[in-house]
Amino acid sequence: MKRIKLQMVRDDLNDIPGYELPEGYRFRMFEAGDEKIWADIETRVDEFETETKALERFRREFGPYIDEMGHRCLFIENPEGEAIGTTTAWYGDLEGDGNIRGRIHWVGIVPEYQGRGLSKPLLSQVMNILAEFHESAYLTSQTTSWQAVNMYLNFGFRPVRLDDDYEEAWSLLEEKLGRIIGY
């Protein structure tokens, strides 16, 4: 499938679907020194070529706000206590209009743990964290992450038109997912 960037919004953070982690797994929040763990996970899910590049991005994006990470960055730990997934309940101005929304940011579960029922609990938990700080939320993704996009749709996110290839992206996704998205 052609890779096209896309954006989605959820106009409110009410009625967030609830999902529990499988037995033995647990959530924990970011702690001082977890930058390397974040970088390892994001590198293992192919967001970065190297852990060094991931750390550079972390420091650039979150470094000035490191104190907020303890309230906003979430990890999933496996039964052995190893962090194997992460996402951040961040914030930003998606449309450049001064409207600051919550942002689902840097979602990742390492490949060997994908397909184990962890994504929905992770999304549910991070949305509940966002609801403590914000009234609405957005995320960015791409057509090649069609399984994640399908989950986001099921969690109440909808497409938002910001790019010229908006219609192509959502047409491809409708075909791939076999569902009407109503973009």
Structure description:
The chain has one domain (5-177): Gcn5-related N-acetyltransferase (GNAT) (Aminopeptidase), CATH 3.40.630.30. Strand 4 (83-92) and strand 5 form a beta hairpin. The chain starts with a strand and ends in a 6-residue tail after the last helix. It has helices spanning 35-44, 51-62, 66-72, 119-133, 146-154, 166-177; strands at 5-10, 26-29, 73-77, 83-92, 101-109, 137-142, 158-159. The longest helix has 15 residues, at 119-133. Strands 2-3-4-5-6-1-7 form a 7-stranded mixed sheet, with helices on both faces. The protein is an alpha+beta fold and 183 residues long.
Which features characterize this protein?
183 residues; alpha+beta; Aminopeptidase; seven-stranded mixed β-sheet; 36% helix; globular
Helix content: 25-40%
The CATH superfamily is identified as Gcn5-related N-acetyltransferase (GNAT)
What count of domains describes the coordinates? 1
CATH topology annotation? Aminopeptidase
- Give the beta-strand count: 7
Q: How large, in whole angstroms, is the Cα Rg?
A: 16 Å
The assigned structural class equals alpha+beta
Task: Profile the largest sheet.
Answer: 7 strands, mixed
Mind telling me which CATH architecture this is?
A: 3-Layer(aba) Sandwich
Low-confidence residue ranges: none
Q: What is the first-to-last residue Cα distance?
A: 19 Å
Spatial sequence of strands, sheet with the most strands:
2-3-4-5-6-1-7
The overall average pLDDT, rounded, is 97
In one word, what is the shape? globular
Domain N-acetyltransferase: 25-179
GO molecular function: acyltransferase activity, transferring groups other than amino-acyl groups
Keywords: Ribonucleoprotein, Ribosomal protein
InterPro entries: Acyl_CoA_acyltransferase, GNAT_dom
